[in-house]
């Protein structure tokens, strides 16, 4: 691609953030749509800026509202998001302040608003002059919990109600950059062997006793730097997510359904544990189903992959009965906010009731396809009881042949451990 086709990356970041906050797209989708406009050398910075702005959005908005008597709206709204980007660079990156201001102002031309360059330049330079006092004012802004915690009030209230002693731990973890966890393919290397390969590449890591294949990197790296990644030696997967396949306990020769399977991390883990299991991976999103195939190809594994809706299994199941089912149910994703900080601003309180009804509907409609004596693992990446322990209590009460096996597992996000996840293991009597 000709270099001239690349836009100012701050302008692209502003477009991505506009797509999230004004149009309701996920940040991952917004970035993917702009991917071919970003030079490879700039992709990491684009990710850093966009995810960072989403993480600390209320703080940045606070400064703009204190610097401008009237915020930018209408056709000029995208420049509001450009200002967020300029402020984030000044506050949270190593980019020199003069460069952050200059590059941000330069992006105004790419956004076809050259007449407003003076406004953007003036606001950013005024922030540099008032930075210390504005930071202090932000810290003292006791009226706005949304500012102090960087979380919307509806979510904060739910966390306080569910975890009166731990909500601050969850909030603090959500506001951090996530750790990078790897799942070693034990069919290729032991954890210690793979750590030696990492060490040769000067990549520091730690293993985790409870999960025999898990490694946490001290510092995140691009997957291209991971030894033998392309050959399937290792997969990037959060620690909490790695419990799914172990709780499912797949065995060779069994019929196994991975429902809501995209992008395929848990599907491939099942096949690492039981290479000759007959796995059907199903997801409702045709675009994301392609990711399952890509992951299976990289790991040289085979599974049947279908596009299908968990609400209508009769359309794709062909009457098959399964020994084990992993249902990674659609959820609020409130346990993975540190990986997807846009969740805080895309979700609404009303979404939770809708999601719990969808989860229950999928669970009840997929249950008849589990063999008697079979195991179903219900999983979410949520920390909200309505989607988790209360959901399972409701299902057990209404389903006489369903029995809970072992304890319910609710993982909360912590700085050096895994994301927020929930698991329930159910057996069909």
UniProtKB/TrEMBL annotation:
Catalytic reaction(s) noted: cytidine(967) in 16S rRNA + S-adenosyl-L-methionine = 5-methylcytidine(967) in 16S rRNA + S-adenosyl-L-homocysteine + H(+)
The cross-references to Pfam families, in alphabetical order and at most eight, read: Methyltr_RsmB-F, NusB, RsmF-B_ferredox
Active site per the UniProt annotation? 381
Q: Which UniProt keywords apply?
A: Cytoplasm, Methyltransferase, RNA-binding, rRNA processing, S-adenosyl-L-methionine, Transferase
**SUPFAM superfamilies according to UniProt:** NusB-like, S-adenosyl-L-methionine-dependent methyltransferases
GO BP annotations listed: regulation of DNA-templated transcription; rRNA base methylation
The answer on whether this UniProt entry bears the keyword rRNA processing reads yes
This protein is called Ribosomal RNA small subunit methyltransferase B
CC annotations in GO = cytosol
Is Metal-binding found in the keyword set? Answer: no
Q: Where in the cell is it found?
A: Cytoplasm
The record's EC number reads: 2.1.1.176
Binding sites annotated in the UniProt record for S-adenosyl-L-methionine: 260-266, 283, 309, 328
Instruction: Kindly list the organism's lineage.
Output: Bacteria, Pseudomonadati, Pseudomonadota, Gammaproteobacteria, Orbales
The similarity annotation says: Belongs to the class I-like SAM-binding methyltransferase superfamily. RsmB/NOP family.
Domain SAM-dependent MTase RsmB/NOP-type positions: 170-429
GO MF, any single term: rRNA (cytosine-C5-)-methyltransferase activity
């Amino acid at each position: 691609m000709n270099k001239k086709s690349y836009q100012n990356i701050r302008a692209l970041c502003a477009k991505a953030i506009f797509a999230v906050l004004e149009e309701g797209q996920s940040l991952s989708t917004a970035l993917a749509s702009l991917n071919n406009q970003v030079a490879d050398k700039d992709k990491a910075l684009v990710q850093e800026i966009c995810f960072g702005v989403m993480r600390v959005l209320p703080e940045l908005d606070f400064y703009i509202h204190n610097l401008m008597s009237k915020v930018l709206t209408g056709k000029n709204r995208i420049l509001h998001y450009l200002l967020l980007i300029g402020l984030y660079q000044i506050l949270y990156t190593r980019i020199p302040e003069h460069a952050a201001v200059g590059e941000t102002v330069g992006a105004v031309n790419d956004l076809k608003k050259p007449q407003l360059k003076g406004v953007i330049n003036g606001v950013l330079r005024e922030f540099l002059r008032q930075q210390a006092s504005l930071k202090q004012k932000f810290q003292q802004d006791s009226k706005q919990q949304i500012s102090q915690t960087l979380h919307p009030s509806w979510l904060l209230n739910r966390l306080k109600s569910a975890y009166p002693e731990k909500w601050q731990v969850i909030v603090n973890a959500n506001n951090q950059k996530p750790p990078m966890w790897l799942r070693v393919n034990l069919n290729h290397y032991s954890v210690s062997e793979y750590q030696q390969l990492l060490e040769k590449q000067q990549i520091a890591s730690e293993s985790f006793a409870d999960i025999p294949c898990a490694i946490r990197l001290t510092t995140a790296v691009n997957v291209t730097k991971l030894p033998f990644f392309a050959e399937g030696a290792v997969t990037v997967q959060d620690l909490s997510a790695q419990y799914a396949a172990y709780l499912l306990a797949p065995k060779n020769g069994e019929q196994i359904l991975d429902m809501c399977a995209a992008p395929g991390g848990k599907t491939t883990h099942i096949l690492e544990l039981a290479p000759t299991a007959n796995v059907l991976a199903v997801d409702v999103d045709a675009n994301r189903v392609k990711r399952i195939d890509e992951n299976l190809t990289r790991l040289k594994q085979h599974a049947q992959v279908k596009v299908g809706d968990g609400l209508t299994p009769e359309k794709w199941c062909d009457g098959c009965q399964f020994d084990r089912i992993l249902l990674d149910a659609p959820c609020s994703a409130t346990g993975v906010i540190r990986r997807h900080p846009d969740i805080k601003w895309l979700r609404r309180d009303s979404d939770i009731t809708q999601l719990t009804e969808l989860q229950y509907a999928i669970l009840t409609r997929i249950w008849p396809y589990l063999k008697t004596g079979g195991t179903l693992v219900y999983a979410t990446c949520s920390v909200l009881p309505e989607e988790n322990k209360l959901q399972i209590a409701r299902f057990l009460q209404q389903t006489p042949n369903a029995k809970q096996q072992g304890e319910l597992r609710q993982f909360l996000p912590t700085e050096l451990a895994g994301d927020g996840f929930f698991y329930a293991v159910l057996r069909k009597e």
